[in-house]
Amino acid sequence: MARIIAPQARPARSGRYxxxxxxxxxxxxxxxxxxxxxxxxxxxxxxxxSRLVGxxxxxxxxxxxxxxxxxxxxxxxxxxxxSDPSDPRLYPDLDTFFTRPLQRGxxxxxxxxxxxxxxxxxxxxxxxxxxxxxxxxxxxxxTSLRALLGPAWPELALPxxxxxxxxxxxxxxHHRVYLPAAGRFVYRRHLPGRLxxxxxxxxxxxxxLNARNExxxxxxxxxxxxxxxxxxxxxxxxxxxxxxxxxxxxxGRRVLAPCDPHERLEAGTEIGCFHLGSTVFVIxxxxxxxxLPSHVPRPVRAGEAFAQDP
Length: 310
Description:
alpha+beta, 9-stranded mixed sheet, 3-stranded antiparallel sheet, 8 helices, 16 strands
């Protein structure tokens, strides 16, 4: 039976399990922009700001929302070719536009022996998982897996031998999350935290930023072992939605159809959605395909193979 940890209260500040844990100290950025971001991370009420942003984006005011969507399209340049619908004028508000689905058949998933990207975004990097002290480091961005997963790490009892992958979603990408490989849902845990920006320049400036932010950890039992996804919120994210949220966690507008936790899910099943934001980590078990030998960071599309048997 799938295990869902009851959601905890969402404090404005990070709690016990959001404290950064790193094997060695982070170098302190010296530039003024980095210092300003560190001050912002400590002092700015990011949760209040994010809730205000989320409320404004979902405010059903026709003229205001149409102008907002036009401005967003002009400034951000989102990918609309595969959206359903592709005409931005057909969306009632910016939140609906931001969580827009993909057209059916526009993403294709690899067969057995491969893992498909869970998102449209950028694969920032990957690293072998040697244990709880593993640190994923990419171009100055350091993330401790123990801090990222918090109490989920001992509960999931992840063995060494897998790989951890770091995907970043910019505002121009689609923000739905898909299952990289076929499996059965077995675990969900919400970890309260902050809502700091997760753009690469912020990740460099603020140590273990991903472990400070609010997260939702999901796990799936596959033929090779337990596959884990950690969905990380960011500033402006009014909600992380998953297809496995318990009833008390389903307030507000929902865009995903709930999944039956007792059924085996196919690769490419929609399992999550960001209402603005963010970042996804994928942690594979031993025996899963190794990372493809390709340059990172690199752009990826949902379903594109990022790990494959030789």
